[in-house]
Amino acid sequence: MRNPTLKAASAALLALAALAACGRDATPEAAPAQNAPGQSAAPATLLVWAMGTDGDNLPKLTSKFEAENPGYKVEVTSIPWQDAAAKFRTAQAGGVTPDIAQVGTTLMGGITDAFQEVPAGTDTSVYFQGPLKSAQVGAQTVGVPWVVDTRVLYYRTDLAKKAGFDGPPKTWDELKAMAKGMQEKAGAKWGIRMSTTPDQELQNSLAFPWSNGGQIVSADGAKWTLNDPAVVDGVKFYQSLFTEKIADPAPDSGAGAAESAFVSGDLGILVAGPGESTALDEAGGDGFKDKYALATFPVQKSGTSFAGGSDLVVFKASKNGPAAWKFVEWLSKPEVQVEWYKISGALPAVQSAWQDPALSGDPRLGVFGEQLKDTNSPPPNATWLQVADVLGQQMEQVVKNGKDPAAALGEAQAAADSIGTGS
Amino acid sequence: MTRRSIVYLGLVVAVVATLLPFIWMLLGSFKTQGEILRNPSGFWPQAPTAGNYATWFTELHLGQFFLNSVVVAAVTVVGNLLFCSMVGYALAKFEFRGKRFIFTLVMITLMVPGVVTFVPLFVLVAKLGLTNTYTALILPFLTSPLGVFMMRQFIADIPDALLEAARIDGAGELRIFARIVLPLCGPPLATLGILTFLGSWNNFLWPLVAAQTQDMYTLPVALSLYSTGQIATQYGLLLAGSVLVIAPIVLVFVFLQRYFTQGIATVGVR
Amino acid sequence: MIAWAFALPFVLLFGAFTFIPLVSSFGMSFTDFHSSDVQTPFAIDFVGLDQYVKLFQTPQFLRSMWTTAYYVIVGIPLTMGVALGLAVALNSGINRFRTAFRTGFYTPVVTSIVAVAVVWRFILQQEGPLNTVLGLVGIDGPDWLNSTTWAMPAMIIMGVWRNMGTLMVIFLAGLQTIPTELDEAARTDGAGPLKRFTSITLPLMRPTLLFGAVLLSVWYLQFFEEPFVMTQGGPLDATLSVSYFAYKQFGFGNYAFASAASYVLFVAIALLSMVMFRALRSKK
Question: Which domains occur in chain C, in start order?
Answer without folding.
Answer: 46-283 (1.10.3720.10)
